[in-house]
Hints:
The protein is an alpha/beta fold.
Amino acid sequence: MSFRKVNIIVLVLAAVLFLLVLHHNFLGLSSLLRNEVSDSGIVGFQPIDFVPNVPQQAVDGRQEEIPVVIAASEDRLGGAIAAINSIQHNTRSNVMFYIVTLNGTADHLRSWLSGSTLKTIRYKIVNFDTKLLEGKVKEDPDQGESIKPLTFARFYLPILVPSAKKAIYMDDDVIVQGDILALYNTPLKPGHAAAFSEDCDSASTKVVIRGAGNQYNYIGYLDYKKERIRKLSMKASTCSFNPGVFVANLTEWKKQNITHQLEKWMKLNVEEGLYSRTLAGSTTTPPLLIVFYQQHSTIDPMWNVRHLGSSAGKRYSPQFVKAAKLLHWNGHFKPWGRTASYSDVWEKWYIPDPTGKFSLIRRHMEISI
């Protein structure tokens, strides 16, 4: 009887030892897999220069640095300049601008910044390598506009600001009227890698919802006829969100390999055409909607008062526009163009290009810069 007990004990110990070895090997494999797809391992961004000047406002060196990422294409460079100027003048915080460009724009941008009142800001210019998008995007002949590589820069935030735990991303067609510190301090729920402004309950959408079609829920961006989309079990009526302004928890972003997930859906769309055929918005929105489905926090709606560029007419009262923390000209009518609404509000923050390469388009020549 005792001999049988000894055998049982030996078998149990052997089984425990086997399970420990198996668990150790599994952990090693999991670590390897994480390293294989880790967001921090992606290459394709080259810092071009760094200007560590002290802003005109007195900045406390003990303040936490606020990384603000803005993409700046050559044809919209005036928009990025105005956005940066509005941010800088409405805060006393320690802001570091990460300006993402393509090769040919860096010199122009540098000349503009150094030749204006923005020469004292702290910034870093980062070149975006378009090879990152190979196999992940394709031109759609049904869409009138060509692919704009810089719109995908927001997918690569941990690589753009590798040492930061948190960052703000915003499009170049915005003006900030509040203190950027308030947006940066947006609380994110545990496990959430980003906070966006949702389309259904935002202050701006309630004004323009009738003209937005389905561009305020998931069915407006994704093709629910496709089996791969249906298998995700995402409700088609789910409120979409606007990715033109958001706050990111980069620690959580890297932990969840958000960049890798976004690239996965970009590739699948190229292969299977998963985005809605009536998609009117940016092609960056659908993969973000999938990856962040019911897994994102929200920002104050007044920090993304949008649709200012959806028509040439004025949709909001002057009081509402003045109260907004951030104004967003998403849509076809940009404030540096001929027929944009509230262009006078935007133009207060615009700084003329000292090189003369960029100029505003206005109806009357006497207003032209």
